[in-house]
Design a protein that fits this description.
389 residues; alpha/beta; Rossmann fold; 2 domains; six-stranded parallel β-sheet
Length: 389
């Protein structure tokens, strides 16, 4: 049995951990791979951590959680303690592969000075940190990060990217001849039961996930819906978000909202499967940029799997591509604080009510966001890397 050390800066108990980490690990574990996981948990509920650790141990998955505490000192501490533990566990166990999920995990690996081969599960190119407001573009930190990213990509035994645009970028800019796979953020499509809207004249919009700006542009959702109301549509908008309700409230307090019922909700991961099909349209608005263009938000697959149409901004590669390929995705431009209704958007909104439209959306999800297909791709790249040893 091969043993893999999996490092994630996200928590296993976070929504992303439940939807985008554990399903893949459990499947690989069932296929004969043993896992040791390092994660950074935002919850301080020790009973929950203890029970989950026991649950994973019963599956022969060993988990080392570190508590995520805010502050610059704790940011440095997280890197140091993670690097120390990488060396500690390698001294105790024979590790065949290190799986680095995301840029922070890659930095922690570099700090450990480990020479063990690794799979780089690239969730976002580091240039997005500048476009997302975490650092300044062309600053010293930005330039260092770009150089480190090149080193990590060059030395990886395999790379996973979220979208075809990311694969194209690596093929164009790196002489990379090792396994390189596109594995979009997937979902368990079989858990969604699509529903038809009984109120044909009423559109239920939903915004799922991250809200902080940059890169998320919550303001655009209000601009869009205000324009639709003026055009004659009746709308409601629900925000489903775990940790950023205060950010959303601040934005809503600053914006003029016309005759739109707005709710803020917080759901556990398992509740998403049952709740999302109750809406009609999912919204995706991001800041534009060279690097953000290659992003692929988790919510896209979840919306489509639930049978929802999607409205998002132009300039995001995956949305632009899906809008050309299908009727399920509509991309729009919002200039400054204005959106002008178009015949194309109007036609899209008239089409969303039918059950056939919802089936079409779910079929598109099945093509690109199937958890079963993602599991097969992960297994394939693991075998390509580990069967060589």
């Amino acid at each position: 049995m091969k043993t893999c050390l999996y490092i994630t800066y996200d928590g296993l108990l976070d929504p992303l951990g439940q939807s985008q980490i554990l399903p893949y690990i459990k499947n690989l574990n069932n296929k004969g791979y043993e896992f040791i996981i390092i994660s950074y948990e935002k919850t301080k509920n020790q009973k929950r951590i203890k029970n989950f650790k026991k649950e994973l141990k019963n599956l022969s998955i060993y988990w080392k959680p570190f508590i995520f505490r805010k502050s610059k000192i704790n940011f440095i501490y997280r890197f140091i303690i993670g690097a120390i533990y990488i060396n500690y566990i390698q001294n105790k166990r024979e590790i065949d592969l290190i799986h680095l999920r995301g840029g922070y995990s890659a930095l922690i690996y570099l700090l450990s000075f480990s020479k063990k081969k690794y799979l780089y599960d690239l969730r976002a190119f580091w240039g997005q940190w500048a476009e997302g407001g975490r650092t300044q573009k062309n600053s010293f930190v930005y330039k260092i990060l770009i150089k480190l990213e090149k080193i990590i990509i060059k030395n990886a035994e395999g790379i996973i990217v979220l979208d075809e645009s990311g694969k194209y970028f690596i093929n164009k800019n790196f002489n990379y001849n090792k396994p390189l796979k596109v594995i979009s953020t997937s979902t368990n499509i079989e858990k969604y039961q699509i529903k038809e809207n009984s109120k044909k004249d009423y559109i239920r919009f939903v915004y799922l996930g991250g809200a902080s700006y940059p890169p998320y542009k919550i303001k655009n959702t209000i601009i869009l819906l205000n324009a639709l109301v003026k055009f004659g549509y009746k709308c409601s908008l629900d925000f489903i978000n775990k940790n950023e309700h205060n950010i959303i409230k601040d934005i809503l307090n600053k914006e003029k909202i016309d005759k739109i019922k707005i709710n803020l909700r917080s759901l556990d991961h398992e509740e998403i499967f049952e709740t999302l099909p109750n809406y009609d349209v999912g919204l995706v608005f991001l800041e534009k940029g060279k690097w953000l263009r290659m992003s692929s938000p988790t919510k896209i697959g979840e919306y489509l799997a639930a049978g929802l149409g999607i409205i998002g901004n132009k300039g995001i590669a995956v949305l632009d591509r899906l809008s050309k390929e299908s009727n399920c995705v509509e991309t729009i431009e919002i200039d400054s604080d204005n959106f002008h209704m178009t015949d194309k958007v109007n036609k899209f909104l008239l089409y969303i009510n039918g059950i056939n439209f919802r089936k079409e959306c779910q079929q598109l999800a099945q093509k690109y966001y199937s958890l079963k297909k993602a599991n097969k791709k992960y297994l394939s790249i693991y075998r390509k890397i580990l069967d060589k040893t």
